[in-house]
Write a structure and sequence with these properties.
- The chain is an alpha+beta fold.
- Among the domains are: about 160 residues, Alpha-Beta Plaits (2-Layer Sandwich), CATH 3.30.70; about 350 residues, no CATH class.
- About 55% of the residues lie in helices and about 5% in strands.
């Protein structure tokens, strides 16, 4: 919880590693995920770094793995799921064995693939030949071929039949033919080209193949057509063959004799049967090889990714002048320094290095990265804050408080017991099966957002169930658990003959207050909206003021941590006094009004008739005006109210110059004092050498100034502490002036902004009521068997609209409004968010994202 309250303390370290132990040491550091390396070779070209050849080796291994994986998926072989025993990065000796094994596997799969392609090509050619031989039976017979001795001098049109062509031959020469197979979509253009080159002297017959053929290379289905082209003369034959080559048509020998064709068909069928047997054996062998490879493929992928990440990281190191030591710089959480030291020791011991690796903590003025240690529950809330801006180093982290305030403010707008139950059930399902669901790598961004924020959704659903219970609202209906505390004093005739009756609170209510939430009788009241308007509007202002006051108080935590006590006096005090005396006082008036004014109060001055408007009272207070008084009533809620209000306004106005001039004057005086004492220095200049007990870590710590180490700061209760020592006084004054105006105006606008809690709550309740009355009530009004069928259908429409509109759309709307209230109204009071996130070298992060930088 300490890391969630404030980011962890970081240290900049120098690492000295022997070259032979560098690979194993970085591998151990990648397993711990506690180190963020800095690039010491930023001026060196990527292709000129020391380990670029090893990175290329890893790229080659990665290419082979991609090819093997593609072949495995191509054959539909299931890749084994990765178990919990994730392999470590292979040592240099294992890398050589892995390279040889992948090379052998790739060559074997390549050979099997090529053999299979060749066999399938031969099989497809024989299949096409069989189809040509079988389909040409209908094109001509032996008797027709024998009679085709000569061709007439006249042109034989393409449209005439083969029988007519055969009868019109003359004995001037024999009629030749070419048979083959062409793709079906090319046959029309093919016929037109033959007609053009022959001037109509070629007769073509065709027949579509019933079953598609399979492309040996791609595996796609191909639809083809058998054709026979009749012609006369060798010159025309050569032209036809050229056209066939241009259209990628396959030509096959086809005997003119019927008996020869029959014999040839039998031979082709026998060869096809033999080839099919060989193909089956080849596919079985390929299947066995791919199944055995699929078992090891996940481990190989992880090992190669880890190797590649290690060599990428080693390229960030610098080699010392003697080429006997690798030097690296990294950010490390102070709490993880012993873990990093142990990882370095384990890395050296793994290769038997006699010279240990050293870790030296060095001093720096550079701001460290921000690291908040999270778990699966807090990670979603931390991501909400980081989306706005990463906290400055050691700044107070709003994520801790967001765990409660975010779902609570959401629930005020979304308060419905039924809708909250749906949301909580969906989130509970994701949380219960999070390991199984998380193992499935989905590319659906919407699902990934829902799953990443499953605990946020769970809390939003649970809090919405609570507020729905307080509102006594479940799918726009109320629950009568404790019975109503209202009772009707009218007789039955009066009640039955009047559509609306007014219940007098002085005579028609019981003494006790309803146990929890709203009385269910309000569901029947015609003035329900008026009552809920005032109720929810006042609640939104009260919760908003409390939320803002808490945000201003959080700035004290930053001021104390970064040793800025004067900021408490010059910024926090005027801010909290201004907010409390203005809008805190307005919230106080609401409570006073609820307590003092009652229908059962005997004093007429404290009856509901005399209850003043809090908003009008507040406006008159700011304008120094007196409120209009009803005869017999008192304008003030309590004695001395006007004096108290004038005092509060006077003090609040004094807070403005306090905020505006206090800090610039303090900085100006501090500069003058430093100018007088700058020649009096400390002999040791605050330097302390602090060795880490019980370890080899060498630390050099420099005492920080009041502004904090490497922080950012400034106005607005920011997290860091960048001071104004180097800024001219005019810029300091302008900066403080802008900050003061922004704060004073924001107290008004931010308070009004919390009214969205009231507006969205009413809108959600009314939309839910409309959906019930306009959709589901249609089915409830039906009777008999038709009513049962009708309500069944209407219920599904009602359920769909409830989920789509009230849960998803309204939920998203309330989520975005809650996010704005935290980012703008709450966090602006103390949060600066000018840091940068800690991104450690972690194998887990690399494998989860499947990306190696």
């Amino acid at each position: 919880m300490g890391s969630l309250f404030r980011s962890e303390e970081m240290a900049l370290c120098q690492m000295f590693i022997q070259p032979e132990a560098a690979y194993t040491s970085v591998s151990e550091l990648g397993e711990t995920g506690a180190v963020q390396f800095r690039d010491l070779n930023s001026g060196v070209n990527v292709f000129q770094r020391k380990f670029v050849s090893e990175v290329r080796r890893c790229d080659e291994l990665d290419r082979k793995l991609r090819y093997i994986e593609a072949e495995v998926k191509k054959d539909g072989v299931i890749i084994a799921e990765l178990n919990d025993d994730i392999p470590k990065a292979p040592n240099p000796r294992e890398i050589i064995d892995l390279e040889a094994h992948l090379e052998k596997t790739e060559n074997e799969i390549l050979e099997l693939s090529q053999n299979e392609v060749n066999l399938k090509s031969n099989y497809m050619e024989l299949t096409e030949l069989r189809q040509v031989l079988e389909n040409t039976q209908g094109f001509f017979s032996d008797q027709e071929i024998l009679n085709l001795d000569t061709m007439r001098n006249s042109i034989i049109p393409i449209e005439e039949g083969a029988q007519q062509a055969a009868q019109q031959q003359q004995s001037r020469g024999r009629l030749g033919f070419v048979a083959g197979v062409i793709q079906r979509e090319r046959i029309f253009a093919f016929e037109r080209m033959l007609w053009r080159i022959s001037r109509g002297n070629v007769f073509v017959r065709q027949a579509d193949l019933q079953e598609p053929l399979t492309d040996p290379s791609s595996g796609h289905k191909i639809y083809k057509t058998v054709f026979v082209a009749f012609f006369q003369g060798e010159q025309l034959k050569n032209r036809i063959k050229k056209v066939c080559s241009g259209f990628h048509a396959s030509l096959y020998p086809c005997p003119s004799s019927h008996n020869e064709r029959q014999e040839m068909v039998k031979g082709v069928r026998t060869r096809l049967a033999d080839l099919q047997m060989v193909l089956n054996q080849t596919e079985d062998h390929r299947k066995r090889v791919l199944v055995s490879v699929a078992k090891e493929l996940p481990n190989w992928n992880i090992m190669v990714k880890k190797m590649k990440a290690i060599y990428h990281t080693l390229n960030l190191f610098n080699m010392d002048v003697t080429n006997k030591c690798l030097i690296g710089e990294c950010w490390v959480p102070v709490n993880d320094l012993p873990i990093v030291q142990k990882a370095l020791s384990d890395g050296s011991a793994a290769v038997g290095s006699t010279i240990p690796s050293f870790l030296n903590v060095i001093d720096t003025n550079e701001p460290p990265p921000t690291f908040n240690r999270t778990n699966r529950f807090t990670r979603g809330f931390q991501n909400l804050i980081d989306a706005y801006g990463v906290a400055s180093y050691r700044e107070a982290n709003p994520a801790l408080y967001t765990i409660i305030t975010f779902p609570f403010l959401f629930a005020i707008m979304f308060g419905d017991l039924g809708h909250g139950m749906i949301m909580a059930a969906f989130a509970a399902w994701m949380c219960a099966f999070e390991r199984k669901l998380g193992a499935k790598k989905s590319n659906n961004e919407i699902w990934n957002i829902f799953f990443g924020g499953r605990y946020i959704i769970l809390f939003m659903g649970l809090f919405s169930m609570y507020t729905g219970l307080i509102y006594n609202d479940i799918f726009s209906k109320s629950m009568n658990i404790f019975g109503s505390t209202w009772f009707v004093t009218y007789n039955e005739t009066t009640v039955m003959s009047n559509k609306e009756l007014q219940l007098n609170p002085t005579t028609a209510t019981a003494e006790e207050v309803y146990p929890i939430g709203l009385d269910p009788v309000w569901q029947l009241a015609t003035n329900k909206i008026i009552f809920l308007n005032t109720y929810k509007m006042k609640l939104s202002i009260i919760f908003g003021v409390i939320h803002m006051l808490f945000g201003v108080c959080m700035s004290v935590v930053n001021h104390l941590h970064f040793r800025r006590p004067m900021n408490i006096v010059l910024e926090f005090l005027p801010q909290i006094i201004f907010l409390a005396l203005m809008f805190g006082y307005m919230s106080f008036l609401m409570f006073i009004k609820w307590i003092l004014y009652s229908a059962k109060n005997d004093d007429f001055k404290y009856s509901p008739t005399c209850a003043p408007s809090v908003l009008i009272t507040f406006i008159n207070m700011v304008l120094f005006k007196s409120s209009d008084v009803v005869e017999g009533c008192d304008a003030n809620m309590f004695e001395g109210q006007e004096s108290v209000q004038k005092t509060f306004i006077f003090i609040a106005l004094l807070c403005v110059p306090w905020m505006l001039l206090g800090k610039p004057i303090y900085i100006l005086i501090s500069r003058k004092n430093k100018g007088h004492s700058k020649f009096n220095g400390d002999i040791n200049q605050g330097m302390e050498l602090t060795p880490e007990p019980g370890s080899e870590i060498i630390t050099t710590q420099l005492e920080t100034s009041d502004n904090g180490t490497g922080g950012h700061g400034g106005g607005g209760g920011g997290g860091g502490g960048h001071g104004h020592e180097d800024e001219p006084f005019s810029e300091i004054f302008i900066h403080q002036c802008i900050h003061t105006i922004e704060y004073v105006l924001s107290t008004i606008s931010h308070t009004a902004s919390y009214l969205r809690l009231w507006a969205l709550s009413l809108a959600h309740a009314q939309l839910s009521e409309v959906l019930w009355n306009m959709v589901l009530a249609l089915g409830l009004k039906q009777e008999g068997y038709t009513g049962a069928v009708f309500i069944y259908l209407i219920f599904w429409a009602f359920s769909f609209l409830t989920l789509a509109i009230l849960v998803l759309m309204e939920g998203l709307s309330a989520f975005l409004h809650t996010l704005r209230l935290h980012w703008v109204e709450f966090m602006s009071k103390f949060y600066e968010g000018l840091g940068y996130i800690f991104q450690p070298f972690s194998f887990k992060t690399i494998l989860d994202s499947d990306v190696v930088d």
